[in-house]
Design goal:
Belongs to the UPF0047 family. This protein is of the alpha+beta class. It has three helices and eight strands.
Length: 145
């Protein structure tokens, strides 16, 4: 007989400054029951249109700085054809960055841990100058030990 396991949690992150931020420890802290899952999946869904989720380098902070620089260079603010600027010059660029990177991740769970690579971490991309608190719906499913 298998021991199917399902859990859904709302993770609320405090406001972050614009840029890319490691949030792996916040996700793990919100799901202490993950240690009971032998094999499964964690799905993360960010409920916002001006921020993003991605997995990337977790050790060298210059990677996060370079990512911010790249996206600011690639998706410029104050382009004359942007019409959706109600909340400021970073409004439409934030929506574009969110669409490029995405708002959801699925991560394997093995033997009670996220099966991230040695140098991988979960990142929040905050694309607004003043984005505020961010909410993630985390859905954990699998076979419990």
């Amino acid at each position: 007989m298998t021991n199917n396991f399902w859990q859904s949690e709302k993770i609320t992150l405090d406001s972050y400054p614009r840029g890319f931020h490691l949030i792996t420890s916040h996700v793990e802290a919100a799901l202490p029951s993950i240690r009971h899952v032998e094999v499964g999946l964690l799905h993360l869904f960010l409920q916002h249109t001006s921020a993003s989720l991605t997995i990337n380098e977790n050790a060298d902070p210059t990677v996060r700085q370079d990512m911010e620089a790249f996206f600011n260079h690639s998706v410029k603010e104050e382009l004359p054809f942007f019409r959706h600027t109600y909340e400021g010059k970073d409004d439409m660029p934030a929506h574009l960055k969110s669409s490029i990177l995405g708002c959801q991740l699925t991560i394997p769970v093995q033997q009670g841990k996220l099966a991230l690579g040695t140098w991988q971490g979960i990142m929040l991309g905050e694309h607004r100058d003043h984005g505020g608190r961010r909410t993630i719906i985390a859905t954990l499913q699998g076979i419990a030990a």
